[in-house]
Amino acid sequence: xxxxxxxxxxxxxxxxxxxxxxxxxxxxxxxxxxxxxxxxxxxxxxxxxxxxxxxxxxxxxxxxxxxxxxxxxxxxxxxxxxxxxxxxxxxxxxxxxxxxxxxxxxxxxxxxxxxxxxxxxxxxxxxxxxxxxxxxxxxxxxxxxxxxxxxxxxxxxxxxxxxxxxxxxxxxxxxxxxxxxxxxxxxxxxxxxxxxxxxxxxxxxxxxxxxxxxxxxxxxxxxxxx
Length: 226
Ligand code: DC
Description:
The protein is of the alpha/beta class. It has helices at residues 18-29, 37-49, 57-65, 80-89, 93-108, 124-128, 142-155, 164-178, 200-213, and strands spanning 6-11, 32-35, 116-121, 134-139, 191-194.
């Protein structure tokens, strides 16, 4: 039997830089990467595309059970409209249950035979992989996150309404932190990395130093990304 795969769990609020950090760590370590937010986004987008309301719990649960992972590269998944739908479906327990199986399978059998995985989301260190080998809780002040998100949107050529990004992040934070199932909370044994006053390079170095302290920070070969 191959040794169990190593798991790095990265949790944190919207626009905390989890995706960037997770991708970079996965590349460095030669681990597979899963952006679990994409799964919720795919469920939300699937509903919007068939004209269903993301708040329709039965339809959302059905969409999660029939999720096709080959659709996870769709650029529309990254839109703000999809992000909003995702945060609505993420509060439905049946949706979370269906996606939990997918994430655990990914962690147990990384694609491409990688020796480990980096999974980022909201409940990876608390619910999906509570025995993860390394857990990082990435945080940053909401105003700093809003400024980063606005910059990213401007670079993509999107029009920005004054204050709208900040309000949207505050609403999403509230939904993620206050929902009854698997809310965003820091795992008691997670390493807290507050990036309010850090750039992406500093965050990467700090995360790598922590992972090194867990005994496996060395670089590895190329690996799959999702
Ligand atoms: O990280 P993101 O913005 O792509 O996530 C989209 C939504 O999905 C967000 O509102 C929170 C939810 N989500 C979740 O509930 N659990 C996860 N593990 C990942 C994302």
